[in-house]
Amino acid sequence: MRKFILMSLLLLAGCFTDAATRIAYDIEAGAQRIAQEDGARLSLAHRTPSRSGECEGNYTVQLDQVGAIIIWCRDKQDRQVVSSHSTSYHRRFVDTLRTFILEKKAGETLFIELERRDGRTLITEAK
After folding, report:
1. Which of 4, 26, 91, 112 is the most interior residue, by most CB within 10 Å?
2. d(C-alpha 107, C-alpha 44), whole Å
């Protein structure tokens, strides 16, 4: 019973995450899946940062070289930022080669490329 309660709480915790943290979780999962030898590559596809009612317009994603993910969500008319989310959770698992700032349309998929170099996983490209 105790194990069931713990698992239920962990599943519910995913319901309360923000857009940046969900991307960081995808990056963490990718860093665990990528092969361990140098030169290994893995492509991640994050199917939009939003859940219903969250980040429904166009959005900007910044994957910062210092280890932050920042997302700015705009309204459906693309006039103003209505929310922003940030995290550095993923930096324990990956380094970011350079800063990427991407303008994405509402519902557009974010692609992140991972590569192993010198025993470390890097974000080498984002589009």
Report:
1. 112
2. 16
